[in-house]
């Protein structure tokens, strides 16, 4: 068990807090029930309150969790001393204001993806969390899937060799949203996965997209992420697909991976396939390409739900002061890429250069905060 891995963070760090973490969940629509279910099932947390503006949603939550307080007023959560942390599962347009208010009230915060609508808003949230020494975590659930964890391990170990490409396809019929386009809803997953497994920021992004519903944001789009080396990433996202598709192809100099999240078993298949180049770069016209076709390996993956792992990780970070894997800084990089991709769409695919140092914070002492492995426990 290597220090710095998710298993290490969950199992080896000392628990500096004994009493259960009091949780408030705001938003009980699409994703909120999943958050509540996993917080209720976690050993070190208890759900104190659920907030939603919809009376029907609150009635459903009360039937399932009769001991939990329900409210339509978010300020009730902010003023409740039993609540240590707030999980936000509301429309993206509300993330910033709700998260900022929760941090100012002294609550740790878990925000559904993406962290906020703009990188400037994310900057402010990071600053507020750092100032108050609170945990700020973004819900990039796919990072906590056994499949993505395994792909990252194989990448770190060098089993794939140099990564040549990442091709992701993410499509389904809906859910159409009014406050974000399809890249902010679906491509955000692949962007977070790419930065996690490659541990390298892209230098530019190009994107095209279109809307087939008048007055609504783009419902299908194609993104290309360019890296300093020869690696290139393509992501295709679509709200108008007749079926649900969640496929990823990763090509390396040694091995290649097919990751299909829709598959019940064998979500990852590792292929010992590729090319072999014979000759020298000086005599490029004489180069000969050979093809390697070896065996396929489907690694065994745990059946544990990704959101359960993520919730346990969030609770552990609150208890110990550890810095989350999907923290404010990684959330900032994702939002910065999404912003650039949106600008590229408006410019008919023009490549947009990305900040060469997305982790620089000249206005605050955040650079020192990021270097640390965690923050002091509460």
The CATH class label of the largest domain is Alpha Beta
Helix content: 25-40%
CATH topology group of the largest domain: Rossmann fold
Q: List the helices and strands in order.
A: HEHEHEHEHEHEHEHEEEEEEEHHEH
| Percentage of residues in strands | 25-35%
Strand order of the largest sheet: 14-13-12-11-7-10-9-8-15
Q: Can you tell me the overall shape?
A: globular
The Rg value, from CA coordinates, equals 22 Å
Number of domains: 2
Q: Distance between the terminal alpha carbons, to the nearest Å?
A: 27 Å
- The CATH architecture assignment of the largest domain turns out to be 3-Layer(aba) Sandwich
What about the largest sheet?
9 strands, mixed
Q: Poorly predicted ranges (pLDDT <50, ≥5 residues)?
A: 361-378
- Mean pLDDT, nearest integer? 88
Secondary structure class reads alpha/beta
Number of strands: 15
For CATH, the homologous superfamily of the largest domain is named as NAD(P)-binding Rossmann-like Domain
Question: Given the structure, what is the number of helices?
Answer: 11
